[in-house]
């Protein structure tokens, strides 16, 4: 549909050319038989048939297309629009159309409009039908901290203000605020030829601003202005031809600091206060630069009271902000536009011309300045004192909380007024070569290496701590341990008969005092287990090794080794063999039968499961240990990857797609369902570091529905997702 209705064709019959009030009057006269319908038609220029139909109450509906929604439904929409605007989330025309479409879909009325969406003309007619309750206005954006103010803040403010205003006349109440006059007149509508893509106007502008302090009393009196330039020095031409009694200053930033504010207070406020009798009240914002000890002492000497406005609320509680600065800025844009037109060579406002422009501005608003100032004090509830003028502007005020809309929508609007910032993550510096870019995968790899480095440093710290703990324990071995008498009878004796070995990558011995018995008295203290030469010969798999291995269950028969003194299990020839136990004959006649022996297993028989253990259990235990870290990774290998979480570790089964370098690869992950794995609908591909790979899985068995199953490992030990 186009932007305008089709025009009436010339020569066609004219439709309604009378008002509804004229029709009602004519129908009333004809109904009471004062005049006939023919006379009423000639007198009111209304068709006779129309008058007769109204008298007989025929065709009561309005002519033309009928309303799609009922009056009650449109009233509900009005309530939603009003509530959204009150909570700072006003609705545009397009959003109104979408709201109506959502309402129609929920109530199975999508057939009322074409394509199930109201048109632009429906919105225009809707606003025209309810123009007494709805209107379109240009919005002013405010910060969320300003929108989060509540009634409690203002109730406390007005309670204190009531005490401060006691017996103070309007001429003794003053409000001050600083504002700036910019060097940009803004945009305005101009006339161009049709289809101009870039309408432009040649005019020099800049982002410069000049700060001015305004002060006005509640009876409409405007005190002399105080201008602050952004400069280090003040020149004579910057202070000439300006308003009467106006004062000028400069600062490095161009704004009011504590020194400039104190000078303004001494040169403008003190002379004003000395002319008045009785207590005086000054209302302003709570900036820290607006108050110091010197100003407070001078206020006490002259009976001046200071009242600060609630924070982040000056847009509704500051009298000058509410009713004075708006007309002032609009007039300033007009004056600045004329200045730019007549001075095209000036790149920005010449400070020598500014006093003259300021004088023209104050003369232009002088007619309405008193009325605007008084209106500002009234709109903020100060003079006359009326807190309801501000409280009713807050949505959560009791008198305004009569919305009859859905509570879910009301809660959403309330939550939308409060801040909900995103979580700030900890940032770390990346040492990148100048001119070189970096990807997110490289950042992730950098963080992983940093965590691995931190983990290795922690392991070294644990080893040093364990060494120191063992040395301290050796020092205290000669001392008689303190043992409770009842516990000493039940505690078993432990005899160390073999060498104790530690891997430098095993941190299980960190608390060594818990491993050794408390009643240990005789031990060879000349041997340092941490400096054993034979420890260097232990085959230790380093974490940095980038290969994994399968141990062949059939070919690698476990056997004992006297060289490295490690306990290795053999597959038993018969599951029904008896368990062989080699006892220590030297301890046969010991007093305590519960003694244990920690013996070197290099000369013992191989381990044979007991009769209580079945052959299947033993084989299952060995099958679970068949996957070890030793074989080189290849593309299309299935792996079990470990993801470290804040509380628990999670494991995922995946397939290697591509090996990037010696430390990382791309893995496509699967999902677990009762130890059967399937591919998700959306591919889950991630960059994985080789140190995160727990084990390499064998070739899976494919199920009937495309699922994969790995029989070589018991996933119950892992938190597989």
Automatic annotation (TrEMBL):
Residue ranges constituting the DDE-1 domain according to the UniProt record: 210-357
Instruction: State a GO cellular component annotated for this protein.
Output: nucleus
Q: Region annotation Disordered: residue ranges?
A: 578-604
Q: Per its UniProt record, what InterPro entries does this chain match?
A: CenT-Element_Derived (IPR050863), DDE_SF_endonuclease_dom (IPR004875), RNaseH_sf (IPR036397)
Annotated GO molecular function terms are: DNA binding
- Kindly give the Pfam families that the UniProt entry links to this protein: DDE_1 (PF03184)
Protein name per UniProt: DDE-1 domain-containing protein
What organism does the record attribute this protein to? Bombyx mori
């Amino acid at each position: 549909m186009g932007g305008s209705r089709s025009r009436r064709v010339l020569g066609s019959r004219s439709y309604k050319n009378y008002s509804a009030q004229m029709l009602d009057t004519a129908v009333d006269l004809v109904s009471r038989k004062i005049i006939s319908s023919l006379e009423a038609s000639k007198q009111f220029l209304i068709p006779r048939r129309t008058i007769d139909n109204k008298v007989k109450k025929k065709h009561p509906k309005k002519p033309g297309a009928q309303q799609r929604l009922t009056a009650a439904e449109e009233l509900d929409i009005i309530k939603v629009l009003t509530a959204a605007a009150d909570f700072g989330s006003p609705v545009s025309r397009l959003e109104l159309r979408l709201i109506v479409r959502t309402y129609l879909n929920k109530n199975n009325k999508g057939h009322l409009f074409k394509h199930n969406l109201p048109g632009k003309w429906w919105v225009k007619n809707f606003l025209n039908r309810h123009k007494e309750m709805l209107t379109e206005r240009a919005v002013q954006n405010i910060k969320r901290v300003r929108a989060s103010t509540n009634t409690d803040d203002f109730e406390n403010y007005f309670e204190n203000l009531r005490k401060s205003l006691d017996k103070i006349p309007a001429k003794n109440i003053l409000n001050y605020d600083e504002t700036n006059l910019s060097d940009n007149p803004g945009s305005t509508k101009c006339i161009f030829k049709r289809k101009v893509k870039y309408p432009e106007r040649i005019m020099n502008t800049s982002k410069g601003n000049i700060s001015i302090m305004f002060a006005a009393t509640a009876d409409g009196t405007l005190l002399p202005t105080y201008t602050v330039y952004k400069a280090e020095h003040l020149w004579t031409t910057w202070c000439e031809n300006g308003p009467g009694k106006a004062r000028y200053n400069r600062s490095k930033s161009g704004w009011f600091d504590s020194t400039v504010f104190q000078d303004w207070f001494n040169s403008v406020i003190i002379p004003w206060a000395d002319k008045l009798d009785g207590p005086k009240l000054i209302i302003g914002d709570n900036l820290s630069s607006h108050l110091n000890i010197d100003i407070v002492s001078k206020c006490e000497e002259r009976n001046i009271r200071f009242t600060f406005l609630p924070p982040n609320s000056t847009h509704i509680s500051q009298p000058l902000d509410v009713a004075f600065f708006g007309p002032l800025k609009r007039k300033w844009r007009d004056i600045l536009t004329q200045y730019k037109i007549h001075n095209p060579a000036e790149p920005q406002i010449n400070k020598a011309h500014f006093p003259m422009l300021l004088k023209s501005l104050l003369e232009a608003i002088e007619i309405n300045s008193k009325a605007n100032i008084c209106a500002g004090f009234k709109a903020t509830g100060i003079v006359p004192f009326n807190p309801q003028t501000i409280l009713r502007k807050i949505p959560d005020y009791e008198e305004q909380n009569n919305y009859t809309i859905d509570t879910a929508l009301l809660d959403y609007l309330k939550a939308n007024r409060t801040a909900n910032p995103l979580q700030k993550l900890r940032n770390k510096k990346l040492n990148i070569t100048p001119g070189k870019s970096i990807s997110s995968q490289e950042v992730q790899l950098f963080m992983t290496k940093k965590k691995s480095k931190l983990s290795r440093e922690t392991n070294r710290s644990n080893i040093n701590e364990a060494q120191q703990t063992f040395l301290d324990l050796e020092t205290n071995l000669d001392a008689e341990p303190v043992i409770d008498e009842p516990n000493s009878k039940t505690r078993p004796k432990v005899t160390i008969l073999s060498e104790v070995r530690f891997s430098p990558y095993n941190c299980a011995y960190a608390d060594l005092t818990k491993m050794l018995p408390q009643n240990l008295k005789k031990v060879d203290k000349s041997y340092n287990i941490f400096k054993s030469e034979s420890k260097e010969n232990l085959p230790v798999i380093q974490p940095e090794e980038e290969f994994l291995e399968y141990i062949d269950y059939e070919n690698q028969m476990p056997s004992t080794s006297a060289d490295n003194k490690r306990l290795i299990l053999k597959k038993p020839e018969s599951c029904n063999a008896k368990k062989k136990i080699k006892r220590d004959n030297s301890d046969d006649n010991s007093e305590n039968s519960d003694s244990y022996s920690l013996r070197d297993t290099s000369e013992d028989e191989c381990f044979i499961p007991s009769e209580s253990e079945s052959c299947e259990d033993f084989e299952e235990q060995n099958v679970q240990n068949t996957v070890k870290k030793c074989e080189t990774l290849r593309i299309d290998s299935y792996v079990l990857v470990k993801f470290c979480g804040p509380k628990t570790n999670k494991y995922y089964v995946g397939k290697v797609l591509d090996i990037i370098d010696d430390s990382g690869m791309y893995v496509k992950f699967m999902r677990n369902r009762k130890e059967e794995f399937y591919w998700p609908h959306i591919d889950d591909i991630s960059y994985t570091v080789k140190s995160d790979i727990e084990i390499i899985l064998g070739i899976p068995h494919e199920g009937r529905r495309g699922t994969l199953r790995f029989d070589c490992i018991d996933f119950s030990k892992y938190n597989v997702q």
